[in-house]
Every structure is written in C-alpha cells, then in structure tokens.
Automatic annotation (TrEMBL), chains A, B, C, D:
Names of required cofactors: pyridoxal 5'-phosphate
A GO term from the CC aspect: peroxisome
Family of the protein in this entry: Belongs to the class-V pyridoxal-phosphate-dependent aminotransferase family.
Modified residues (N6-(pyridoxal phosphate)lysine): K201
Protein name as it appears in the record: alanine--glyoxylate transaminase
Molecular functions per Gene Ontology: alanine-glyoxylate transaminase activity; L-serine-pyruvate transaminase activity
Pfam families for the chain: Aminotran_5
Length: 401, 401, 401, 401
C-alpha cells in the first residue's frame, strides 16, 4: 500500500502540497465526531477568528470551505460577480492562466493583460485600462499574488494604488495560494476584497481546505451577484455563522483539528517570523542558483518569490529529466516546469514548515542531479553560497534559547 | 485542544460522519507527497476501478472529487443539465429538501413531488407526470435513495421501471449518500445515470471526498450541458484521465491512501456481507424501538432504512433533550430531528464500519437516556429484542473461523 | 499486516492490555528524539512528580522502568532484599503464584500463605507468623493488591495494621498492577514500602513501562540489598536523577509523551472520579453476573474487585469456549481462566479508560455468547440489571455540563 | 505538550534513537489487543523467524525482550554464566565500559583488556590470555562490535579465529547494538554465541525491544547457568515457544506491529543493500570530516565505523557547545562526547532508515555550527567532498527504476 517507498525521508520540495509538521499529523490522527455537538462549533469559532490573522484583516469575513484552491477561486468569483461582468485579469504563468480559464468558463468577460512568463503583472497596462474605464464596466481586477509556475511575486500594494489613483470601484480579487502565511500579505492595508489560499500550501496541512476572506465590500457584492452557486455560496455559511453552528454541510473533523494545530504552530513561531523564515530560505535558494551559474526564471529582482524558485536549465537539458531523476535516485521531489516552460525550468518549493538544513539537503541534492544530467556544476557550490548567507542570518530557535 | 473529552470511547451513532476503522486512520497518518510523481497516479487508478464496484457498475465513469455530498450533488446536476431544464424531484425529508433547494438555486425548473415526512417517494405521482410529459420536457428525475432525516429508503428499481414503462428518456440522478456501500444498490441494473455518495458515510472515512458515477448517457449529456462549472466539471477530470495523471487539481494524499484502506476492508469483508451486516443492524434497531413501545418515523415497512432509524418520541418529550443528554451523560452521539421533525424524532445512525456489540451498547444507552427524560422504558427491553435477533443471525467473522 | 480484522471496533475486555484513549495514541504518534536534549528531561521531571500522585505518596521515590509488570516485580525484590532473605508471600491466584515463583528463583526463602483461589489473603495466618517472628527474620511481606486471575482485592490497610500491631519491621511490597489508578490505593497512609504497576493496565497505555514507588525505608534497604541487579537497579536511576538527565539508558520517547497524555486525562477527570468510575463499572458487572444466575469466582463481597470480574461457568461448559467464541463471532475479547481455574471461569476486565456504554455493549455480548454455548441465559437480563444501577449512578461528564 | 518545537523537521543524527520511517510509525498507531488471541502468536511467529535473518543465523534462537540494550546485555550474561565465572572483556569506550560495569556488578570475574579510546579491541592481548588459559577458566569473551562512543568497529571474525586457533571453548558474547542490521554481521559464520541489539538503533523503531540470538551452545549453557534471573530468563520464553503462545508476559502490541513494518522495509530494500547504504553514508561522512580538516576519533581505517563518526574538535573548542548550538539554532541533534572524550568529540550518527540528502543536510549543518563556534571551516567543503562520493556511488531506488 505504500508503493515505491525509498529508504529515509522523502525530501518534499514541490511548491505544494508541502511538508506537514508532526503536531499537525498528530492532531488529525482521530476518529470522526458529531459535528453538531458543542465541541465542533466551539473549535470552529477559534479557527475563524485566527484565520483572519493570517490574512492580516480585522474587517474581513473568513470562509473555510472543504475544497481546493480551484474551488476557492470559484467561490471568490461566483459570490461577487454575475455572468457577463467584465474582469481584468493578469496572465503571467500557468496558475494565472488556469484562473483566467475558469473566469471565462464561468461566463465572465475577461480582459487579459498578458506578460512574458517570468515577468510580473503589467501594471502600466492596468493603469491604461482603468484610465479608459470611465463608466466603471470593470467589475473586478483578478491577480495572482505569487505565480507558482514561474516564481513571480506581484506587487499588490501597487495594484491597490492604481485603483485608488483612478478612484476605480472594481473589486480586487487576489489568489494568495502560494503567498498567504509565507509572504508579506496585508489584506486590509492593501484594500483586497477577496483573498484566498489552500491548506496544503504555507499552512502545511493536507489538501482539502480553501480559505477565503471577503471584505465588507465583497460581502455586499455577494448579495446581488447573479452567478449560480450553492456549495460555494457564502450566504449559506453566513446563515450558519448566525445560528452559531457554522457549517452548512459536514466539515472534515480531522482537518479542523489539524488547522487548530497548524495555527498554534504559526502563532507560536510568530507570523512575522514565519514570513522572515521564508524570506531567508528564498534568498538562500537564489544564491545557490546563482552559484550554480543558472538563471532564475523570474526576470527581475522585484518579482523574486520567497516561496518558489523556478530555475532555468540550459537548452541541452530537459528539466523534466531533472525532476524524474531527483525522485528516482535521491528521493527528492522537485516541481516540474509547466506548460510554456515545460522542459525548460524545474522548481524548488521553499514554503511551509521548513528549516534551513532541510533546504540545504535539497540544494545538495539538486547539485547532484544537475551533475547526473550533464550540467557541469561544482558540487557544494550552491550549498556553500546558501550556507554562508544562512549561517549569518538564521536566528536561534526562540523556544530553545 | 481536545475540548470536552469524556472517559472512554465516544459512541458515534449519528448517521454520518461515522466511525473510521483503525486501518483507515492509520493509512491516513502520513506526510504529504508530490501528487505528480508516479505513485499517486498508480494509486488513483486502482481507486477509480474499485470505486465502481461499490456502485455495482461496469459501464459508469467514476469521479472522486475533493468535496462533500453537497458538492457531489452540484457536480451531478451541473454536468448533466442546463439552466432552465425541467427536473422532477421528490421531497420526503430534510436532505431531499436541501437538494431541491440547490436545484432551484442552480436555476433548474423543479417539479416537486412531495410526501409526508416519514413516507417514501410518491411514485404514482411520478407515473402521472411521466405519462403527461409526451414532449419529454422532463430532463431528469432526482431522487434521494435513503432520506437520512427520516430513515426512509426509496425503491429505485420501481423508479427505473416507471421510466422504462413510459419510455421516458429523462436522466435518473440518485443521491446515494446514506445508501451506497451499505444498502443494496445497483447502478447498472437499475439504469441510474448519476449516483453519488460521500466519504464520511458508509465508506467510513473522514469527510472530504464526493464519489460520483456517471452512466454513458450522463457523460454524453455532460458534453452539451450549459450549467457553468469548473471545479465540479467532469470534463476536466476526463482530460487528466486520458493523460494518466488523473487530477485536475491537488488531491488529498491522505484521503487517497485512506480510501485505499477503506476499500480493502470492504472487499475483505465482501461488499455483500457489508450490506447484509447493515440489514442485520437495521433490523435489530427496529426491534429495539418496537420493544421500547416507540414509533419508527418511517411509516411503512417497505421504506425501512437499514442505515438510519428515526425514532418518534411521545409529544411530552423534546427529542433534542435526548440527544443532548446522551452526549452529556453517556458520551453517546445520536442524530437530532431536523426541520419538520425537530424535537419530534431522534435518529440512530447504524451505518459504516460498525458491529453488533457497538450497536447494543448504543441501544442500552438510548434506553437509559429515555428513562432519564421521563419515558417509562423497561431497561434492557430493547437490547433483549435486538440481541435475540442478533444472536440468531450474526455470522462468525470469516477471517477468524 | 492486520491479520484477522473484523468489522467495527474490537471490544477489549481482557484485564490488560486495555483500551488506549485516542489522545494517548495521538501523543505517541511521533518520531524519535534525542533523549539527552533538554526537552526530554523537562518532560520526565513532570512525569515523575505526577506518577507519585497515582500512588498517593508524597514521600515515595518513583521509578519509571522500560519493562513490564514482571520486571517491576523483579525491581521491587532485587533492590530491597538479599538472596536467602525470608519473605512472607500470599498465594491466592495465578499472578501471586507467578510472583512467588519469581521470588523463589531470585533465591529468597519464601514462606507461602495459601488461600483457595477465589479467596483473599489469609491475614490470620500472617498474624500468627508475625507473632512468632520475634527475631524479625521476615524481611518482607509480599502481597498482590488485586489478583487479576480471580478478581480478588486484598485489604492492604489490614496488612499494615498487623505489621504495626506486632511492631514488625518487615517491608511491605505490593503488586498494584491491576489496582493502582483504578482502585482506592494509598501508599503513604497504608505504609507501603514498594508499590508497582504497569502501563497497560489502569493507565491505559501500551505495555512497556513499569512504575515503581519506593518508600524512604525501601530506598534505605536498597543501599545494602545484595541481590545482583543492573538494569533494574534504582541506584542507577537515582544517580541520573541527581544529574538531572534522569535516564541511565535510552527511554522510549513515545511512551514518555504517551504517559504525559495519560496523566493529563486522569487528572482532567480527577483521580478520585476515575476510581469512582471503576467502582461503578465493577458493581454493574457483578449485578449482571447475578442476573445471569452465575457465580462470581470471588467468594466474599469484601474481596470483590472493581477492575476484573471472574465469572464461574456451570460444569457442563468450558469457559475457554466462551472466550474463543466471543472473539470469533462478536469481536469481543474476554479473559481466559488461568491455571487452576482454566476452563472454569472467564474474566471480564473493566479497568482503564472505559465508560458505561462500552461495558453494556460487552455485557450484551457476554449474554449472547452464553446462549451460544448452551447456557440458558435470558438475553437482556444482565444488561438490564447493570443499566438500572448505572442509570441511577452515572454522573454527567463534567466538561460537558 | 510538545515542548521546544522548532519550525521544520528535527534533524536527528544521534547514534540512537534514530529516525523512524513513516510506515513504522503508522503500523504502531493502534489500540491495544488481547495478546492471547490467535493474531498475536501468528504475528510473533513471523517476527521470530525474520529477526534471525538480521543476525544471519539459521541455528540461533531469537528472543525479543521488552527491554533496552542494557537489559539485552543482562539477558546475555545471566543466561549463560554463573556468578564468579571469569570473563574476558574489551574496554574501548563508554559502552564497553558500561557493559563491563554490569558484568562486575552481576558478580562475574572480569579480566579487562583496555585500549586507548579511539582504538579497537587489543586482539594480541586476547591471544596471550587464551594461550595462557590452558584450564579454560575463561568462560566467555565479551566484545562490543561497534563502540558507539568512539565510532570504532571491531573485527569479530578475527576474535573467532583466535578462539578457534587456541581451540578455546569460551562463549563469544557480542554487543551488536549499533551494528546489527547496519554493518556486516554474520552470527553463524563468525561463531557468535550470543548477539544482541536494540530496537531504536538500526531497526529504526522506538526504544523498547531488546533482540537477542543465542547459539545452540549458548542455549545449552543457559540450562546450567546459575545467575539469578526471571524477567530475562530465556527458559521462560522457550516454555511459551513450545506452547505456541510465545510470551511469558505481556508484550507491547504496538512494538510487535512496528517490528513487522520495520522488517518489511528492511527486506524490501534488501538487507545487503541496507548494509551497503550504511557503508556509503559512513564513507561520505568521513570524507566530509577530512575536508573540514578535522580528525576522526577512530585511529585506524580498519576500525572506521559506518554507523557513527566521532569527530575530534580542536582543543580550543568545547564539543558540547557544538551539540548545544546545533540543537538550538539548526534543529540538528548530534551526539555528545561521553566520559573520557566529553568536550573533545561530537558524534554524527548515520544509522537506520536514512538517505543521502538527509546526511548532506546534516553535514551542511555541522559546517555552520563549526563556523558558529569559531572553527575556520570553509562552508560547503564537507558537503562537496561527501556529495562527490555519493553522486558516484548512490544507486537508483530499486522500486522506482
């Protein structure tokens, strides 16, 4: 039943699903419970309160939906928009592409602003569109905060500023799947109307929970949005929030307790420390890539992602072979290049509950694989570059001082 | 973190989520994995094949969607129907009511056939409607196989027969949430077009997986159905089935391994033995209710459910008090009466991975609670009636002979 | 790998190993750790303090040894006595017999006071021996508090009183394996010099930890005791207690965390409530036995055990067949009759983390098995008797009021 | 309850307890069971057969005792020897010292052959003693195969050869705690009379099982050995082997299933592949130490251990500070220097279920710590040396080819 088991731990460095810490695995190790008995609502209440902290919102309303990121996207769109509504959406990689595909299939009119893969959102083009949209036909701007396929982080504050500059009332809908709880994310300060993420990313849980926060404006929009929806309907949740039982249908008991444990770990470390750790590991990874003489898929430093690094391989190498070999020889799981960058990049996910030595083990593995496939890397070079930075910047573990 | 823990095991007799067997809990006790590596598709392939056996279909196409029963409903409807389509739908209790509500909100024209709660689907009325529908405006007949709120099992073979008698092409969509894998269910033989269930019911897993099987006819319908959908879209699944990677988005690794273990247990026992066990426990429960001098909410024997028994309490007792007290004093979780029967019935769920002595423990608890709330029950009477039947009918555990 | 798995839960009613509560299973679900890092000594310190509370001692010194009850016995004897020393030891059943066998093989001179199996320790004979022992050649009195084979609880306070009456300095060594943490046990008040138990009994953990508490007098004796010992030597532990690292050799990390969880549960319920619960379940069991028209192996009420009931079967029935059949047909695990009472009694263990409905499920199973093997029991009779008592005496679960 | 938790995985590189693979953790995640029911003897039978394979013996008799390595030592000695018997015992480090201490306290006459810590057993001196012992007063030769404190592996074949050369009938008792299942070990071929190990070492389980194999000659000796013993007495086990119930007292159900899983993993990988993996990781570690410019505590290559490397630090550094800092800053658990080498060496354990990237992560951590404490290491140097070797020598994971 365990298929293809190798000796030792699997080194999981795909940008999701990520490593689950032991206390979360433990918390989920349990039988079912009656979710209508008092324990589950009491637990849920703490979860909803605490999830808001991850989004840095006090005014938002959180929804924890038993679904994936794709479902969270659908929830964000169908609760705030009506078929035929115009959306401006940025296409910068595979996940923004998939979201746009969803937007179109849900029958919105999508005005796509495309960038080369490896670049961030083209904000100049957004500015033009906002400037031109005197009648406010644009109902929403959709943006992926961190494009997981290319390792590009967009500047959300700048998007907000443009909307404010043009005094444009469009809703700002943000995919924070590979950013929230790992990158600097400020829902209230940046005026985000809907933000969302999934449990298997920086929260370091199994897949199965979509987290959505809606601003008061988004909630208002949900009252009149005409998109057909039931499973994803916020109003059903709000009805049960009022009653105090919280769930319009059966939640996963295990995931609820797992979330409690995940949140406890995050708050024990401190959310800002979690974000600083991601920044540290992201920088260390980029230093290794540089030391290997390879190019980061992300074209400018301002877009560098601290949760995933897409590494461009030389044209004579198939990046899929790197991923295959890493898994087959070193029990190392790396991310494939997707769609336009298939075969051209491989990805190192460095998000979630992860520490310095885990990353260095991964980097040493990448080096060996690079050599395996014929790239003339100097073994130890990337590790040395990363370790030099980490040895200077890693703090003591607070609970152990 | 464990809230309200009591000494000893919780006796979980709500009709879902139900008890998870240890081997399933064990199988799920694991870290995440890269779902794009070869192990997960290999595992998924066995799951899809084996899930079909639960539905007794060879021609159906299975979908395992990371959602709940409510999501599975939505998937069944949106993949086969277009807004404005006419549906005939039976209203016989809270869950059929909720499904009808969903059907209406998804913008289908729902022709509701209502029965008194406690009765099964009114098939005479269906016959009239089919007879009258010469132009075949009815696109689908929707029916809940086992209404969990009242403990009523509908006769699916009879529904099929009516459709055949009238040579009516309407799709037959069946909610098998509290029936599949517990009651006699024959997708192919009964000509069911879409059947569905959820993981936390007779499969005895955590909540989080909706299982849907679509007949070739339903699959054909999905090609032209105009309901907007992405997360629930079968076509996205089919695309990845063809590629052999199976998943349009990230599945829960833990639930996949859990499902493998759950299926292994079911096939080890034998699906027909599983169904026979439910029949045995259902009958034993009804004998106890009779011995207590209480009425079954189900009005005729033909509708008796082998997965849940709704027990009507005398008018001077509030059934919610029974549920509350069972939990607070005896660590026994019973099902509340819902909506129209709130306060009037309490429910004993007897589905999933459950055995005779667990049920007898529950029945002895119900007796004590009945006495607690002032009903003049003879302690031991229900247990005696149930045990007399069980002592005659329980087979040896095959692996132990 | 799971061998002989049956549907539903196993009903575990042997008098050890007993059911482990989920929070303990969860706490043990973990990787190894460096036991020399600060976390483990910090944890151990809390455990040693809290274990003393189970023994109701403030002056005793606790030892948690990675062994079983048999090892704990050996530790008690070899640390306090020298080969050739005279012991008075009571033989009342299989476990006292095994301890005496150990005492003899460890080369002590054992003066055995034998009772019929089903009777308690013969204290009159002890009185005579103490009276006659003017020169204090008796170095220790060894007694099993609760004889697990016959369900007999001895009166420790009375033993203490005799020693005091005769002003006899013999050490009082007590096997509390099936009593401590379940029956009234007062190490300090009853002047017990060494008391011991094992993790798989009332503490409701896996097997693997022996708990020993030594009085100051026993500790003093350990300084001069000449029995050869290393693994079981208290002095090695004391050396590491002083250093603050606590362990002379590698402990089981999992068992340490499991013990923490077990103790937390016990203190959450309240030790006195735990004991009251055992008293309640013991009495309920005896009422059932009476209702079945069967005899308790324990011959007088004063010896009735609240942790295990040995039920005498009619001569025409082989009690082993009852145990076999309970397991094979009802997934119910009962205790065999051992040695002298093999075939004549079966045992119902009712100790550890157990509640009323679990017991009633077990009793209903016993009834069915009795009928299976040809005993003319009235099904439901025992459950009715037990439930009548329990419905009157069971308190609300404090955390749920 | 989790004390001092840090982000990410703990990097556990003490030479025991070692990392437990997920399938073993999973297998142990279970409730207790009646160990007298048929499942446990059936399971035990497979375990006893398979444990022999780890020792490479077909003629030996295995004992699985719920104890630690210290208890296994005691079992080996007390079952084969009588108080006053003469033993020759090698003292080469802390663990051989502790065994000798035990031998003395168990009242054997111990003739100690001491070497400098960092050297192997002085076989010349053994030769002299055997030559001189015409009357065969030496009853046993006791040797630690792999001294965990110094990382020294002794040559057991050479010891056997000496005994044969002098035709000496002394029993050969071997501590294989940090060797069996990791180093080349051949009980039958090398004529070992008693060999032993513990579960938390190369078997990669929790602490709590001592494994002992006795040759026919050792078994014969146990019939007349006069050392007092009960808990550790092989004869009690043999009695229950004959009956087919196997256990003289309650085993840990969890450990039995864990052992089954551990053995399955070892045989799936192939025992010889497991040993080759240890050889590979051992060599890689030594290459790193060399690259750092540090000395291996082991003085000659012939004694190099493939399960633990003791690294000598420069005199101006306290090795304990390295261990402390590794844990506090990098969540890396290294082994302390013990006794004579306290403060002078730190130890890297590389045994058990471990792979290449885990080791490289550890080595990168050691480099950072070395720099932290003021040793002028070139970051990346050790990793480079190790990786260069590993990239050449690591095989594909067989199940993934």
């Amino acid at each position: 039943m365990d298929y293809v088991y190798g000796p030792g731990r699997n080194h999981l460095f795909v940008p999701g699903p990520v490593n689950i810490p032991e206390p979360v695995i433990r918390a989920m190790n349990r039988n079912n419970e009656d979710y209508r008995a008092p324990a589950i609502p009491a637990l849920t209440k703490t979860l909803l309160e605490d999830v808001k902290k991850l989004f840095k919102t006090t005014t938002g309303t959180p929804f924890i939906i038993p679904t994936t990121g794709t479902g969270a996207w659908e929830s964000a769109l169908t609760n705030t928009l009506s078929p035929g509504d115009t959306i401006v959406s940025f296409l910068i990689g595979q996940f923004s592409l998939l979201w746009i595909d969803q937007q179109q299939r849900l029958k919105f009119k999508v005005d796509v602003i495309e960038s080369e893969w490896g670049q961030g959102a083209n904000l100049d083009e957004l500015a033009s569109k906002l400037a031109a949209d005197r009648t406010h036909t644009i109902k929403a701007v959709c943006i992926v905060h961190n494009e997981t396929a290319t390792g590009v982080t967009n500047n959300l504050a700048a998007v907000r500023k443009l909307l404010d500059d043009y005094n444009h009332p469009a809703l700002l809908l943000v995919d924070g799947v590979s950013s929230i709880c790992a990158l600097d994310f400020r829902m209230d300060e940046w005026g985000i109307d809907v933000a969302l993420t999934g449990s298997q990313k920086a929260l370091s849980m199994p897949t199965g929970m979509g987290f959505i926060c809606a601003s008061p404006k988004a909630l208002e929009a949900s009252k009149t949005a005409q998109s057909a929806r039931v499973f994803f309907d916020w109003n059903d949740y709000l009805k049960f929030y009022k009653i105090g039982t919280y769930w319009p249908y059966t939640p996963s008991i295990q995931m609820l307790y797992g979330l409690r444990a995940a949140l406890d770990l995050i708050f024990e470390e401190g959310l800002d420390n979690v974000i600083a750790r991601h920044s540290r590991l992201g920088k260390a990874t980029r230093l290794a890539v540089e030391a290997w003489g390879l190019k980061n898929c992300t074209q400018k430093e301002e877009w560098h992602s601290d949760t995933v690094t897409a590494v461009v391989v030389p044209p004579y190498i198939d990046s899929s072979e790197i991923v295959r070999r890493a898994w087959k020889r070193y029990n190392l799981s790396l991310g494939l290049g997707l769609n336009k960058v298939a075969g051209k990049v491989f990805r190192i996910g460095h998000l979630g509950n992860l520490n310095e030595l885990q990353l260095l083990g991964c980097l040493s593995g990448v080096e060996m694989v690079l050599k395996d496939v014929g790239y003339p890397v100097k073994l130890g070079s990337g590790v040395a570059a990363a370790a030099t930075y980490l040895q200077n910047s890693t703090p003591m573990i607070p609970s152990r001082i």
